[in-house]
Amino acid sequence: MIMNVTIHDIWKARKRTSQIVKKTPFLYSSVLSDVTGASVYLKLENFHETGAFKLRGAANKILSLTVDEQKRGVTTFSTGNHGLAVAYVAKQLGIRAVICISNRVPKAKVERIRRLGAEIEVFGHGQDDAEKRCYQLQEEQGLTVIKPFDDPYVIAGQGTIGLELLEDLPDLDMVVAGLSGGGLISGLGLALKSTHPGIQVIGVSMEHGAVMYESLKAGKPVILDEQETLADSLLGGIGLDNQYTFRMVQQYMDQAILVSEEEIAEGMAYIFENHRMAVEGAAAVGVAALLRKKIGKPNGNIAVVISGCNVDISAHLNAVQKYISH
Length: 326
Ligand SMILES: *Cc1c(COP(=O)(O)O)cnc(C)c1O
Hints:
Layout: H1 7-16, E1 26-28, H2 30-36, E2 39-44, H3 54-64, H4 67-72, E3 74-76, H5 81-93, E4 97-101, H6 107-115, E5 119-122, H7 127-141, E6 144-145, H8 152-168, E7 174-178, H9 183-195, E8 200-206, H10 211-218, H11 245-252, E9 255-259, H12 261-275, H13 281-291, E10 301-306, H14 313-324
Parallel strand pairs: 2-10, 3-4, 3-6, 4-5, 7-8, 7-10, 8-9
Antiparallel strand pairs: 1-2
Helix pairs in contact: 1-8, 3-5, 3-8, 8-9, 9-11, 12-13, 12-14
The chain binds pyridoxal-5'-phosphate.
Organism: Fodinisporobacter ferrooxydans
Pfam families: PALP
Protein name: Hydroxyectoine utilization dehydratase EutB
């Protein structure tokens, strides 16, 4: 069933998730403002308890399920920030969560999810197999599959970032955020443009495997091979049968930008050096785009979404070191 997501759904998401999702800090960056000539602010989604904004969408979706559905439990096939969020919300609500993974997923990632109390189901050799297993669990045991982005409740949940931005800065002119499956940009775009249609919405992806970017160019969802990238949270397809986010990103995003691996490392190093925060590659793409002056006419009040901080300390060190030795 296709429904239209509206600003009303985002307000409802805000109310529904208020017990689990805390408002995140909003920080003026004098250094980035100096570099760009605009007033640049950082929206610190790395401060969620799960380390990324995906908590918002997962909380809104799971809290929207009926009591009966909640009793049967939830499942998902992400081992990244979405999987962590689903496991965390399930634990808060005392319900069952099964995270399906392939046998290729690194042990450290699996342990973190297990520590949150979720069950791990190992199946097959790739992400597609893990996804298939989720839908089997739905059939066999009545678990609800919690999708990472292409779901109206997930999109509305991510949109609550937009409400917080407008509270802190009603005169916002532009928002810059990472773009993968498009749940984040869809929710943000809907929240901001429903309020002030003039706010510019900029999506940033990595050069290596920008599926939404290529899909928009092709006019329909496409498939790309996955490549190594520092912005690993931006990896993954958008689904050939995409129902919501492809259309919403088309409607709400004003500019799509790509950044190189070197630029992502520069963004991570810059945030570390100037703001003393270790953030993951996917969260540094907006700062990278600003630093390299890739955003058309950055002026007025700009909010950059720092989307998460789930990165191995060694991977972070490596990225920063590579950048410094350049
Ligand atoms: C998921 C994610 C994104 C991208 O969000 P989409 O809704 O998939 O476009 C950006 N940054 C981080 C840290 C993420 O986990």
